[in-house]
Amino acid sequence: MQALTLERSKQLIQASTSLLDIAHTLGLSGGSRLYDHFVQLEAVTPGEFKRQGEGVEIAYGVHETPLGSLFVAVTPRGICRMGFVDTTNTEELLARLAKDWPRSTFQHSPETTRYAVERLFNRADEGAAALSLHVTGTNFQIAVWRALLTIPEGQLASYSHIAQALGTPKSSRAVGNAVGANPIALWIPCHRVIQQSGALGGYRWGLEKKQIVQAWELAKVNNESLSPMATP
Questions:
Q1: Which GO terms describe its biological process (predicted)?
Q2: Do 148 and 189 touch, CB atoms closer than 8 A?
Q3: Identified catalytic residue from 72, 185, 190, 213
């Protein structure tokens, strides 16, 4: 019922300027109930859905890295997209981004997006600010992506392990779909998820790329563990 109500509200929201009127049309007690439906199921507010990125400036660029060319896009709130260009092309990635942010403005600005890549391959200075990610998805997708962030570098987890961690042990297939929908390669580490059997499972940017990323990350962790301790 919530999902049906949400879909109907999406239709009404394009034709109405009043969220309160929409709530009443749907038989909800008020605007707060409409807000709850959107936040719980879409992880965005009704206002954010209606604006569809209007007024948001998105900078994008392509950067060469040891793992291949990376397309990166950022908003003032954080990284909103990162993907490997060698398995697709920049135009296609930009088209997908425009579909998700139809009313935003886009600017080719590699100097603005470079930080998102440099932090991956260079150790952050002590006290450096944490990176922010600006993504949208269903509540379940957001929960899965947050779970991925808890997997330590150089370690792996199965789809079923994540499902159990979320308290939904029978949702391994849904977890796999959410992992596959990850919009930010590397920073949301979907490459750390494998099948329970030990098989690689899927990867949005190809299994060969998944193997390369896993090997790079494991080598990075091992090198850091072998680094000499700083003397007092």
A1: methylation
A2: yes
A3: 190
Q: What are the distances in angstroms from CA 57 to CA 47, 89, 207?
A: 17, 22, 33
Please say whether the beta carbons of 70 and 62 come within 8 A: yes
d(CA 137, CA 113): 22
CA distance 214 to 128: 25
Q: How far apart are CA 48 and CA 116, in angstroms?
A: 24
Token reading at 105: 């403005």
- Per DSSP, helices labelled H in 122-206 are 139-149, 159-165, 172-180
**CA distance to 52, 53, 74, per residue, from 175 (Å):** 26, 27, 26
Amino acid at 197: S
- pLDDT (tens, 9 = 90+) of the chain, 232 residues, equals 666 666 677 667 666 657 777 777 777 777 777 767 666 655 456 666 666 656 688 999 999 999 999 999 999 889 999 999 976 778 888 888 888 888 889 999 999 999 999 999 887 666 667 889 988 887 789 899 999 999 999 999 999 999 999 999 999 999 999 999 999 999 999 999 999 999 999 998 999 999 999 999 999 988 877 655 544 3
- Whether 190 is catalytic: yes
* Alpha carbon distance, N-terminus to C-terminus of the chain: 62
Tell me the H-state helices in the chain: 2-13, 19-25, 31-42, 46-51, 90-100, 110-121, 139-149, 159-165, 172-180, 207-226
